[in-house]
Specification:
Blueprint: H1 2-25, H2 33-63, H3 69-86, E1 107-111, H4 118-132, E2 138-142, H5 147-157, E3 166-169, E4 172-175, H6 177-186, H7 188-193, E5 215-217, E6 226-229, E7 234-237, E8 246-248
Parallel strand pairs: 1-2
Antiparallel strand pairs: 1-3, 3-4, 5-8, 6-7
Helix pairs in contact: 4-6
Amino acid sequence: MIGSDDQKSSSIYSRSYTISSSSTDFPVKPYPSIHRSESVKKKASDSIKGKVRSLCEIFEARRRPKPSPDASKFQTKLKSEKSCSSNEPNELNEPSPIRLPGTEDRVVVYFTSLRGIRRTYEDCYSVRMILKFFRVYIDERDISMDSAYRKELLSVLREKQVSLPQVFIKGKYVGGADVIKQLHETGQLAKLLKGLPVRSTSAWQVCDACGDVRFVPCANCNGSKKVFDDDEDQLQRCPDCNENGLIRCPNCSS
């Protein structure tokens, strides 16, 4: 009996040994669970991005309206108008059909000194500074100070409404702020101003009488716009000043 028990125990030990030895002889590879999960995530993200892109393209295609033939004609018309406007400064050497009589020896600028519209005020200011650089005589006509200048400008241009500023050189109509800036950048403005009398004093010198406002209170009515008529024994409208009781400065606007 003792011998049989020893044989059984030895056989058990031998089996355990063989199992352990077999496990060492055939090593088990690690399970690539992590790598698979990363690849699955990458594939999923790529597929989601592709679907999102395709959906965005579909929605954008739906939002984009199909160009109609009328719209294409309108766009071509706008392009032609822009090309004409871009070539406008090059055609200024030709005689302009719009003239301002009595101003062949000066530059006339219709502008406004009011700051209600910022873009308009900045355009007026920049054009005045550009013209002052050449030291020529500038007839500055502020329509906000005298409504007669506004009526005069509308009648000359034959328009019901115009933008400011508007510039006339040697009696010929030149254009607005964009035209003057482009002419100054290309050097053609100096050619247009050639031949005009140059101021002996500095163009940046401020007038002592009006402070470069170009208007002063009327000396006849002291700005009240009313004078007493001795013959009729009543007050009447002053014939010398405008609707604001102002007259042109005799020092800098004569």
